[in-house]
Design a protein that fits this description.
Number of domains of chain A: 2
Number of helices of chain B: 9
Distance between the termini of chain B: 58 Å
Shape of chain B: elongated
CATH class of chain B: Mainly Alpha
Order of helices and strands of chain B: HHHHHHHHH
Structural class of chain B: mainly alpha
Largest interface: A-B, 46 and 64 residues
Oligomer: heterodimer
Strand content of chain A: 15-25%
Largest sheet of chain A: 8 strands, antiparallel
CATH architecture of chain B: Up-down Bundle
Number of strands of chain B: 0
Structural class of chain A: alpha+beta
Strand order of the largest sheet of chain A: 4-5-8-9-15-14-13-12
Order of helices and strands of chain A: HHHHHHEEHEEHEEHEEEEHHEEEHEEH
Number of helices of chain A: 13
Largest sheet of chain B: none
Shape of chain A: elongated
CATH topology of chain B: Butyryl-CoA Dehydrogenase, subunit A, domain 3
Radius of gyration of chain A: 27 Å
Chain lengths: ~375, ~180
Amino acid sequence: MCYEDGRLTAYLDGEVAPEERAEIAAHAETCPDCAANVARLEEDRAVAAEALVKLQPTAEVVSLDARRDERRASPPARRWGRAQIAAVAVAALVIASFAIAPIRNAAANLLQVFRVQKIQTVSISQADLQSIGAALEKGGHVDLQAFGEAWIDGAASEPAQVTLAEAQAAVDFPIKLPKNQSGDPALYLQKAQTYRFKLHVAAINDALKTYGSDRTLPAALDEKVFEVSVPAIVLARYGTPAGGTAGGPQGQPDGIYVGQAHSPELVVPDGVDAASLRDVLLNLPFLPQNVRDQLAAVTDWQSTLLIPNVDGTAHDVSIDGVKAVVISPKSAARDARKKATMLGPITDTTTVIWNDNGVVRAVGGPIDEGTAIALAKSTME
Amino acid sequence: MQRRSAILRDAISPEDRAAFERLYRDHAPAVRRHLTYLTGDRAISEDLTQETFGRLYEHARSDEAAELRDPRAWLLTVASNLAYNHFRAESRRSSREASVGGAAVEPTDIDNVLDVRKALDELNARDRVALMLRHSGFSYAEVAEAVGVSPSSVGTILARAQRRFREAYEGARPGADEKE
């Protein structure tokens, strides 16, 4: 008796009982037809296996740990310029600050999970910042640490240098890089990390009252843990020799960089009404009216990433129909930014940031706006 | 609808909710990866991920809910089934030509990925999902459950799917196969 293709395929896949397995093997020894069929099916299977593996984001990020440790001995990641790190920090902070999009169904009713779907700017002038600062000073001693705590699970990890294949294996979206760049970029992978924070509601409410706010945070919020998951970030850096092996880049001007990551995810804890939190924030008495109006006008607030535009440092652009935000700190505004955001040293780096189907992408460098937009455009293609 | 969900939500004990949150945290990335692999489309995989957890919730609330010994396996099977249903609905909605190179395919820099997706689009929904599940490590029993057939017919489905896939894939890439 000969076997059908289905049985032979199950046999090849080890999905037949041991007795049948022995029978099929014995039969194929003596039956040239079945032997040929087994060979053909095996080949079909091999072609499919080889092709399908290309679709699979199989490599776990964890597996990169070992390689990261190997590279410790000659750590190119440590050679990042301060400006580079600051630029990444800015991008990461901006991305993390307001991540948000409600998910539309059952799971969303249980968990309030928010993600970025839109990016837009909010204008704020130095005068606004000063008036906020003055209001806060009038309230007397402000101890931010009394308002809550934030922590990271496990040790904070550094970006590790990886190959393109390794980087692509670690993320489930296509890595896009600009065309027409001379030389290959050095690629770095920052592993996914989860940040958690909780608020000390009583202390915050005391402060709110001091500032004359008529709204306070609900007591239920006390000690509730918020979670911000920042997914794996792939960063490409141009302008240094591939692999970062030759020469010390310290003295060189910093090159351009391209960053990409899934939208971070903010999980609001059980029992917390995100809309009421927004209400409290919008009604902070020291918020300048024009800023309040702008914030209140953001109807998709749950899915919009807001980027502060201090005196024209950031603005919305459309690149081939894709909405993007250009951030180009001007020297006049830089000091105010530094003071207002505590982001540390910022060089004249221009950054373009946009949302590509749930993936937040950013390009930037010590370049002018036109060059940055062209760079973004060539990365989008 | 909104009201009903709110009532449901209040009816769940905090312990259940915490357990659900933990399951989401632990398994959502894997479910999302799996669905991205199956559908090739991030937006669809995101929707289906949420739908999968919605099913988990319904399952947990139902009277015949058994203890889930392996929640990840359960979630991946449900996700696969949702992807399969999605493909079936899709093929009813649009012609096959439309889905080739259309929204179901995400551009990428990796060589050949588009060729693979195109070849997969040549298969019917059941063959496609069965093939993809098998090649991501699902057993015949799990494939059977995900696409709603008996385990004994999985071999036949896979034999056909692998043959058709190879024809479409090698047909699209003349010279790319060293064999023939």
